[in-house]
DNA sequence: CTGAAAGCGCTAACAA
DNA sequence: TTGTTAGCGCTTTCAG
């Protein structure tokens, strides 16, 4: 059935040798099914219009032989790998910091699910990865978390023509394909209003020394708010990637002569740190000190007292980012903008309510009800 | 310099067409540098013994052209992709549960770093991934977290001849290449002894209804210990993947008529849940109730009181697992066993010390000292 | 509607 | 030493 010695030279007497021993190739399947390799490819990928009988027969044979198409060959041929990079910022040698754990974990989890549902898988690639690692993996596109201004990785990826979607609006003129972010400014203003409504007279801020967009926007919003209401800013900064520095900064904030009667902490562990500091200074929460922190952790529902948190909705963000990226990869045109703002959520708990909801409280050790 | 029309037939008048527009191929580099593609390949990969001049010249030209080798082509040719799968258990549609966040995040973080240091990248692949996703990515090997007995994914991977290293000793006769785990039994026994030494008379357990190895081994160890010391087991189980169920189970445990005077919680959030439950019942920690939970979270250093935790050392595990896997991939022979046991660490804090370092404690409500 | 053949971009034998 | 060539396993025009 095959024209043997026409004008082929070397391929005479090895009719079916599979590449690696043990794994069946498409040729093996074709031979076993008595069809051509084209038919096998089409049958398995649902491409051509073959009779259903042929299709199912081929599928059956492939199954029986344990045939697995080679991802590398397909990628080489089609130019699509089905792989999406997930680029995380690094501090020192480690990808992402401890304070970002919950956020990152939630975000990555949602991103993984969303990607999977559309047939893609995620590759974790720290931004500072060795160059050879980046070029060793065929990516269809990349999600970048919080890219810095002029990020060399993003620039390079875009130059290669790969779609890049960022979590966090890109600083500077970074040419990303799309981005997803919260409205940090609005979130902070809202939250400060909430605290003021609960009776706060002097609101303090626990912020970071880092220059990432989140920290910068949030801090700026705080300063604007202070200016608007005529309050002197009261804040302490610390390197957010140092897990111990937070506790020290929290302590410093409450030790100030102009001690605030309410505090917002920008980072996840700030809640427990501030609570601990408050105990050290004999401050009751929420009676003497109102507390809010930005966190995705559920532990704050069970602390004493439960602490009000601002959620950035990392799951929404993870999902949105991946959808946008895959749309770009697959060439889906978007009518709307390629910028997406995800609303935040303020989860109000006892720590930010001067009048707690419970009615029956046996008089605590503080006799003063006002 | 190149012999043009010797005995080539079809390749006469297209000297340099690159595959995709915009990206330079190895041929373009060869042409631009005036050498053959082999020389380019060797120069860039540090393979052959070329003069340093040629090598640097080629590198320079490649750089200038913005040449990036095609990962797909290299993978197809060499059979190595530089990609390692990180398989996580799934609950519902989501990869890993909330209670495993801190553990997973730490473990994945360490694994990512370790892989990167050896030139590999990690691909997140939930165990329940669609089959087509698995076969769409060329993996050199896989890390499996807590594989279940007869795990079909592992079985399939091993059948394909891929090395598989598991975090958690494999249940049943799962043919993994290597595994890394803690000695959960010893850890629990140690911890119970610690509580008993602190004065616990009746130790309770907060455990899971799931059948994974960790839960099973830990629970069994607890039962053994109870038998040994002649204590009636006091425990509550709940589905660990449900974040709310833990609080309810903690409450149930402390509401029992045979209320324990010490509790060990197997899962991360148990500490805060138990603390909250203790407050509801007016139990002081550690005076009326000793508390320990298994957690990687630092929040327990700042709770009131700080809670003693058992750390499973996920970073050690993540690193070890990846090292073992890459060794297997690269054919490094191990003299030692391919089973590695990572020691746990009990971080003792106030919650498990009946005599806290502070000297002034008003007499607890239980007058009976014997 | 099916099959043969041409590569995708690279590496590793071999030939010069 | 450097260059030529044959594929890795698959998809995909293009003939039949």
UniProtKB/TrEMBL annotation, chains A, B:
Q: Which InterPro entries does the UniProt entry name for this protein?
A: HTH_LacI, LacI/GalR-like_sensor, Lambda_DNA-bd_dom_sf, Peripla_BP_I
**Keyword terms:** DNA-binding, Transcription, Transcription regulation
Q: What CDD domains does this protein's entry cite?
A: HTH_LacI (cd01392)
Q: Which Gene3D superfamilies match?
A: 3.40.50.2300, lambda repressor-like DNA-binding domains
The source's domain of life comes to Bacteria
Residue numbers spanned by region Disordered = 1-25, 350-370
Which residues belong to any copy of the HTH lacI-type domain?
24-78
Note whether Nucleus occurs among the keywords. Answer: no
Q: Which Pfam families does the protein's record reference?
A: LacI (PF00356), Peripla_BP_3 (PF13377)
One example of the protein's molecular function in GO is: DNA binding
Q: Where is the composition biased (Low complexity)?
A: 350-362
Record protein name field? LacI family DNA-binding transcriptional regulator
The record lists the organism as Streptomyces bacillaris
